[in-house]
Specification:
Elements lengths: L1 H16 L3 E3 L2 E3 L12 H13 L4 E3 L4 H10 L6 E4 L17 E3 L5 H15 L3 E7 L2 H17 L4 E7 L7 H10 L3 E4 L3 H13 L2 H4 L1 E4 L4 H6 L2 H4 L2
Helix pairs in contact: 2-3, 4-5
Length: 233
């Protein structure tokens, strides 16, 4: 979220340095009105109402999929254009689910699960795989996609799931649970601080020495937030 805010500020500065945007034939400076959704759907909905009451009808919001999907539900009347900078479950794009002015820069996360599941099966040829994912919409979408591929194309691979809540400070119990199953591959997909902490603890507890660690999506922000040693495994 913090990195995204900095990106917004930079974009606004670049546009305003060039004179702003053209509206009705006139150049106008733009302003970013920033508010925190606290990574909670109910708070995000309250923030949406605040923006609407202030006459703001273009919103870039939702770093986490469950927040983005809550916003989609609230703008089905077409009263606000919402752009979300994160992946969301594919069902959100179905005709009867998607709000008329709602878009995602990353698309559906089910596809990430399908693509990564197929890659892991072909590359590592494992006998067993654990999906270690965050317990919210993004994780469930990725798990849905992975399950579909494994069950349809690789039914011989034993698949299990371990879920961790958003904001987990200590992943020890989850990692120990994974170690006990002795999987050939662990497929991870956490985001934000959870991703950084989970990867560090996977390294510290030695899971990488027992299983292949596969991460389904890594961006610059995550890669730069983790010390080099976990990546070296």
């Amino acid at each position: 979220g913090k990195i995204q805010v900095e990106a917004v500020k930079l974009a606004v500065k670049e546009v305003n340095d060039k004179g702003g945007v053209t509206v009705g034939g006139k150049k106008m400076k733009i302003e970013a009105v920033l508010r925190d959704d606290e990574t909670k759907p109910d708070v995000a909905v309250r923030r949406l109402r605040e923006y609407q009451n202030d006459g703001i009808n273009l919103l870039v919001a939702g770093t986490f999929a469950h927040v983005s999907q809550a916003l989609n539900e609230q703008v089905k009347g077409g009263q606000t254009f919402v752009i979300v900078p994160n992946g969301i479950q594919e069902k959100t794009f179905e005709k009867n689910e998607k709000a008329p002015y709602f878009s995602s820069t990353m698309g559906g996360v089910d596809a990430i699960g399908r693509i990564c599941g197929d890659y892991v099966a072909k590359t590592y040829k494992p006998k067993s795989v654990v999906l270690f994912l965050p317990d919210y919409a993004y994780g469930h979408g990725a798990a849905k996609g992975a399950n579909k591929v494994f069950k349809e194309k690789y039914p011989h691979i034993k698949l299990s799931e371990v879920w961790s809540p958003v904001g987990t400070p200590d992943f020890t119990s989850y990692i120990i649970k994974i170690k006990e199953t002795k999987p050939d591959v662990v497929m991870m997909g956490h985001w934000g601080n959870d991703a950084i902490n989970a990867l560090k603890q996977v390294y510290e507890l030695g899971l990488r020495k027992e299983s292949k660690i596969f991460y389904n999506s890594i961006g610059y922000t995550l890669a730069s937030g983790v010390l080099p040693t976990p990546w070296m495994g």
